Amino acid sequence: MFPETKNGYTYEDCKATADWLLAQTDVRPKVGIVCGSGLGGLADMLKNQVAFNYKDIPNFPQSTVHGHAGRLVFGTLKGRPCVCMQGRFHLYEGYSIQKITLPIRIFKLLGVETVMLTNAAGGLNQDFKVGDIMIIKDHLNMPGFAGNNPLSGPNDERFGVRFPCMSDAYDRELQQMAMDVGQELGYGDFLKEGVYCVLGGPSFETVAESRMLHKLGADAVGMSTAPEVIVARHCGMRVFALSLITNQVVMEYDSAEKANHEEVLQTGKERAEQLERLVSTMVTKIDQKLAFSIVV
Ligand SMILES: O=P(O)(O)O[C@@H]1C[C@H](O)[C@@H](CO)O1
Ligand SMILES: Nc1nc2[nH]cnc2c(=O)[nH]1
Asked: Hey, what's the signal peptide range on this chain (predicted)?
């Protein structure tokens, strides 16, 4: 059976969860990280961990997907206080769009200022290869086109405005920082940028759908991230996101390739180390930048 779905969480629901967490850890995170399919190793990098299983956190959904451990981990990444979702929620798990994005509002109430999201995605851009890391510069929110937006329903101004702007959703300074860090780390050959398209899943795309998405300007397709980004921007957090291109989307009828979750997880394993180094190096630079802006 599908997990329980609740349509809408109040500010008080989110605050109760955030306060429950804050009472059990001294970590006061400034950066919140969401790990995509097979990319949960990032959370293991945190030192001085205080970790919670999702099933023990009030109001939290449960992870049901292989490759999503279902733990919220507080700790320090290279000395910087962070909180990390080792596993995210997806629409296809049967949760409401408000429920899959609930942790982002909890991030906000924990004091997070910058959200960094990773995901596994299929490559539509013909110049992309499996193993490329795509810095997301924009998204196509297909569920939103059909009226399924995480901000649907009553708006609570304590989170943000009724009609938030999304033309600057992905922080341009952080995109540039990722490019610079990637170059420094020698990732130039496999670091790309592009537009991410979210679909509801869980079925992968037909050939006709993939061709359509490519024509619409999508470089990669997945089943997450955009709803989280909308909620993060609504409540004023900075956003950085990247996709690991885990498979090439099938665009030809005579192709023998078949998309599958095992390939997605396998590619995650092969690129995990580089991806973790990119994100963790950025965290140290974001922190320096914040410290600098406070001094100035
Ligand atoms: O959580 P992400 O977006 O990384 O997960 C992707 C989309 C599906 O959940 C799964 C398909 O293999 O990977
Ligand atoms: N929709 C979708 N999600 C993915 N996640 C990882 N690969 C893919 C893909 O090819 N399509």
From this structure: none
